[in-house]
Structures are given as C-alpha cells and as structure tokens.
Amino acid sequence: MSVAQSDPALLDKLVMANRILYDQGVVDGFGHISVRHDSVPGVFLLSCNRAPGLVVRGDIDCFDLDGASVSDSSNRPYLERFIHSEIYRARADVIAVVHSHSPNVIPFGVTGQRLKPIFHMAGFLGGGTAHYDIRDASGNTDLLVRNGELGKYLATALGAHSCVLMRGHGSTTVGASIEQVVYRAIYAEVNARLQSQALGLGPVTYLSEEEAQLAATAIDGQIGRCWDLWQRRIGPIES
Ligand SMILES: [Zn+2]
Questions:
Q1: How confident is the model over 190-213, as pLDDT tens digits?
Q2: Distance, CA 146 to ligand 1 centroid (Å)?
Q3: Hey, CA dihedral for 132, 133, 138, 141, is it positive or negative?
Q4: Set 80, 86, 179, 189: catalytic member
Q5: Which residue of 33, 151, 195, 230 has the lowest C-beta tally within 10 Å?
C-alpha cells in the first residue's frame, strides 16, 4: 500500500500538525502525531523516525493496528508507534493521536495528580486525565511503549478520557480530528502550567463537569481560528 493513496490534503495537514506542535512547544526532538487513513480502515498515517519540526510529506508512512508498516518504504519507524496503533484499535471514535513529553505535564504524572480544567479553554479535560504507570504492567523498563502489549495497557488506562498522563514519561492526547488533537495537546500543556501555579496559591476551583462540557462544545466550534493562526506562523513547507 502506498501512502500516496491517502488524500493529499490530509497528508499536508499532518505535516503541518507536526510543525505546529513543535512551534508551540508541545514536542521537541521527540513526540509524534498520527491520523487515521481517510479511506483504508485499520490503517493510520505517522511520520518515520524524524523530529516533528523537520517532518516533510515523504516522511509519512502507513501503519496497521499491529504497528507494522504497510508502506513501500524502508524508513525507520518511531519506537513508540504502538501508542497509536493500540489506541486506534481500542477507540473507534479517535481519529488523531498526539504523544509528547511536554514539560509542565510531567509533575502531574509522577504525583498521580490529575489534570483538571482550570479555565474554559481546557474544557476537554472535564472528568480529569487518566493515569498510566508502565511499571505496573512491565516492571522496570526504559519507560518507552515499545510493543503492542504496552500499547494495549496504555489504551486501557486511557479508557474513555481525552488525555492520559504517563508516569515519568509524558502524556498522550486523542481527538476526533487533527485540528482538535493539536488543540488539546497544546492546551493540556497550558492547563498543566496554570494548574501548578494555582495550586501553589491555594485551593483551586475547577470547572464543574457541566461547565467543562459546555465550554468544550463552544470551543470545538472555534478551533479553526487557532489553527489558522498556528499555521500562519509556519509558512510554506518544503516537499
Ligand atoms: Zn515518549
């Protein structure tokens, strides 16, 4: 199967999403974003082993739900592609996935505290984040989700949440589109920073579940405005 069979616009959007996540400080040399193939069930698009800020069209490969490449390429894949494959297997509603090590989220993962919506921009965190500790599944490891078994464990921990914190590692966020998951990954990091600051000042009043739901619905209709701005900062991408 060739990645050329996917919609070129989707491919371009995935490349742009990689660049935006780097520009917005969610990913650095590590971290990745994937999206389901637009016409082949059980297949998703993900860059090869490249820093997201450098990803171009030719880096995007297709993978099946076992995390195996189904592209005609010899590109080296990301070690942690199983994060994506197992979440797509477990969650039919998920269209795009971001995995990152964004720094402000890390303190929550290691203390077992949940991220909760501190302002309306993070309504998607209503109900709080899920928590995953790789040590519970596999003892002492290098913390990386290197195989399908660990990916399954992560997907189970994620459950129906929009974001799962990974102890001593980072986080994984899911969404119903590239734009939505990029938005969520950016604002999970912003919310983490603000939540840490607020907790240092005193007891915090978070959005109620109903407020969070109403805010998330309102924001979802306006994500395009943010996307246009983030995209403008990147400019044209070389092929
Ligand atoms: Zn990672």
A1: 999 999 999 999 999 999 999 999
A2: 10
A3: positive
A4: 80
A5: 230
pLDDT tens, residue by residue, 61-104: 999 999 999 998 889 999 999 999 999 999 999 999 999 999 99
Place of tokens 């297997």: 89
Distance 83 CA to ligand 1 centre (A): 9
Domains of the chain are: 3-232 (3.40.225.10)
Q: Residue 152: what are its φ and ψ, rounded to 5°?
A: -65, -45
- Side chain identity at 209, as an amino acid letter? E
* Ligand 1 centroid to residue 131 C-alpha, Å: 15
DSSP code for 102: -
Helices (H), ranges, 4-99 = 8-23, 81-90
Tokens matching residue 228? 């246009």
Distance from the alpha carbon of residue 33 to the mean position of ligand 1, in angstroms: 11
Catalytic residue status for 179? no
Q: What's the pLDDT score for residue 5?
A: 81
C-alpha span between 119 and 140 (Å, rounded): 36
